[in-house]
Design a protein that fits this description.
The protein is 27% helix and 28% strand. By secondary structure, the protein is α+β, with helices and mostly antiparallel strands.
Length: 398
Amino acid sequence: MYPLIDEILEKTDGKICKHCLGRMLSKTIDGSDNVSRAESLNLDLEFNDCMICNNVFDKIDDDLFTKIYDKLDFLQVEFDSFIVGSSIDKEIKQRDDEIIKSLDLDVEPIKKEINRIIGKELENTLQKEVNFEKQDIIVNVNLRKEPKVRVQINPIFIEGKYNKLIRGIPQTKWPCGKCKGRGCEECNFTGKQYPCSVEELISEHILKATNGYEAKFHGAGREDIDVLMLGSGRPFVLEIKEPRIRKINLEKLEEQINEINKGKTQYHNLKFTHRNRKAEIKVSSPDAYKVYKALVKCEETYDKNKLELLNDLDEIHQQTPIRVSHRRADKVRIKHVIELSCEVIDDMTFEMTIKTEGGLYIKELISGDEGRSQPNVADKLGVKAICEQLDVIEVSEK
């Protein structure tokens, strides 16, 4: 007989179940599972009064699985992959850790076996896959007292690009400035500053198709409310929380959504993506750029010959603009102009097409923002100037 067995029985005063005994011997004795290891020893033990787990494994019975199946049926959740999580009394975990440490064993903790036993049964019955890397749902089982079951539905992530074709639409839902989203007379009790947003015009349809609980929009930057987003569009990721339906036809939905929002917003190349993508699109690489078309209005007649001076604009030092200083840290950002060209409209107006490093404030580059943006268009021309109209033409995908 193995000396380790005597040590285990001494530490537990012989009060140990097959699951815990087999687990302690998992690196010592071969077996298909922990119970078979314990049974192979033919020990004369009761196995029904475990001082380690307090017989928690007895709670993994038909009643528990009925609760799991009933919960899944109630939710009517669509899934292909899952994992199991469990909660047990902290005293059980503490005793288990103490025994393992005192015997200097390298074996799995008790919760891992609980999760595996439940997971195997669900795999066989539901014909679904346990996937630790990426799972659709998490089945959480609380075994502290009377077993309880909770199902966590993991979000889905949809990547695409959008165009904003009219001005006056924010990228995301904007709470009413007066009531902060609670609803008041000012906002007609909608809780919103603006009737719709790029986010809402797509999310309401995706939520309906997925029977999701909530949507969150993650954009690769954002344009001002009065700015159009043209060209190939701005990348975004739409996160749908608690979707009970995961298999949706994105191509068909894209077509329907674009028809409904014709003339306002358009969405392109919708596809499923991974969780990390929402962070990836927010991080600009050194090669990232944006192209804008700005209508510049001067306070008085400008010298058309001085437009050539704008080609010298390169490294721009911008202190946080006054208009966003209430929500952004006050610091100086250094950005670069990559290309610039101008087209004369009249004596006080010209159109400027400008390619810049991501994060350069175009309106402030033109006006100077009371000296906070240096150098700037107004100073180069020697007249006060503002950006009367701005369109985003291209957002790089790098």
